[in-house]
Amino acid sequence: MNTHALPRAVALVDARYLRWLARLEDPDGGTAAPLSRDRVADAFQHVLGRAGLRTHLLRTYWYTDVDDQAVVDDQALRLVPATDTDGNTLVRQMASDLQALAACGRIDIVVIASDDDRLCAPMEAAKMAGLTVCLLADERAESMPRLMQQDPNWARLLREADRRLVMRSSDLAQILGAGLDPDGALSEQGKRDEDLEAAMQAVVNSWWGSVSHDDRESLRDELPALRGVPPEVDRELLLRGKNALNRSLNFHEKRVLREHARRVAMA
After folding, report:
1. Whole-prediction pTM value?
2. By three-state DSSP, how is residue 191 classified?
3. Backbone phi and psi for residue 110, each to the nearest 5 degrees, phi listed first
4. What are phi and psi of 169, to 5 degrees?
5. What is the pLDDT of residues 17-53, one digit of tens each?
């Protein structure tokens, strides 16, 4: 096949998001095993083809706070600080790279693996510049009304894309996690998800019970303009979550906690 005749694509991948999609996070909040990057490009090429987009994937940019020391052809590592827990640095870097790709005029399609809705504006600018913007998601994206209830920020971002590229969590787990039993892992993950939801809801209920009436009204006015929660509220919630689990919260747990807090505050 003459790949030079195909539309050219580049992938921008938030490794933490991909780990979360594949449900490969360490359940105890410890250091999780490194993700295997060897088959990522082939997986993206396949899911693009399945969506009717026959392309030549030129390169994958991998945004992570951990240098796995791996050398993978046609991949570029973008290291972000481990302290970038809210993804500010990562979003700025990814948005800058997306802007550069749109400006160069040599790329036709960009695949983004992220759930950060701060990318909505850079995505819209890229589309206006002529790029086809695709977002990677798991099977939850196949039920958008339900996702809009469960995770409105993620759903909002997915709706901004030209295409949503859906990969099952179990398939991603096999691609990214060497030696993993995906069926067993997902079954165990389902139980952990239920436990986490209950634990974070209890943390939020306790916090909300301590908030005065005036502060509640102030929060309701403030939250619609924010992606997450105000910094002072975030600090208190994270401390309460840490005390409840007897350890620091990981990326996914912080996300669940903030979503529960927003849902309760805006009810």
Report:
1. 0.72
2. helix
3. -125, 135
4. -55, -40
5. 999 898 887 655 555 678 899 999 999 999 999 889 9
